[in-house]
Amino acid sequence: MKKRYFLLSVFFCSMFVLPFLFPACNSGNRHSNKNGDSLSGKITISGAFALYPLTVKWGQEFKKIHPKVTLNISAGGAGKGMADALSKMVDLGMYSKEVSPEEKAKGAWYIAVSKDAVLPTINTANPVIKELNAHGLTKQKFFDIFISGKIKTWGEATGTRSNVKLESFTRSDACGAAEMWARYLQGKKQEDLQGLGVNGDPGIADAIRRNEGGIGYNNLNFVYDMNTRKPYEGIDVVPLDMNGNGKIDPEENFYGSLDQVMTAIRNGVYPSPPARDLYLVSAGKPKNKVVLAFLNWILTDGQKYLSEAGYVPVSPEKLKAGLEKLK
After folding, report:
1. Would the pTM of this model clear 0.90, i.e. be above it?
2. Quick one: 125 and 255 in the same domain?
3. For 294-325, how does the pLDDT look when each residue is reduced to its tens digit (9 = 90+)?
4. Left (φ > 0), alpha (ψ -120 to 50) or beta: where does 221 sit?
């Protein structure tokens, strides 16, 4: 794999790799005591950046109902989530790609809890951003940027005269985002992706903001602001020219807001991969009643928080299958 690595030590990144703790006491205690809630205990979760914001939201809402439950949630990539879960270092791992036969053979138990997608990202000051918004890039162009390395400038990418160097960024940590993006590019693997290696979703997002000639890929929640439902400042999306006709047709133009992209994912318009299901995994079926209660709540009442947090539901059939696995 032809990669060069550098370290981004920024506060934005550190916010997501440090554990997210929910203390045992909060204002919800009065509500709990009044209703005689007896559920108590600790849940530890680590893994995919893709699922981290939603899991944090779930943790906050679950704790309002059960304030005696403590949750420790940390992001570090899907690979870490699976490894931590299988080694029983955590109760649950957040996982953002399909569970492999090898992982199943090691005892991986899993349920699908939501869905999102990986999007190609650029700096809003990109010199050919108007051309990109109008014409997008085909899968072959992305292949020649991230896999073969044939495309070196933005002029080569867009057929313009721009000689601005194209700087690609990829993930240095084992993650679902890289795996899904590589799989979209003619079935490749994360190890095949070329570019400067950056740790974590926040790292790639920050690298794109700092480099007007940069291109990378990010999970949905690291592209769009959950409050404005628009892309974060300094970041834009490269539209996929899915039919290869050299322009972005109306049915391909859905990147203006988070809700438009979510609709495209839900309806299968945005391709899968790089759209994918997101999972919570463990080493065998959980036995801890607190963990089981949390998972059951996620698949039922917890689903109402998906849209607000920028996620798409999995199919009703998958939700039903998950509930059956909890019995």
Report:
1. no
2. yes
3. 999 999 999 999 999 999 999 999 999 999 99
4. alpha
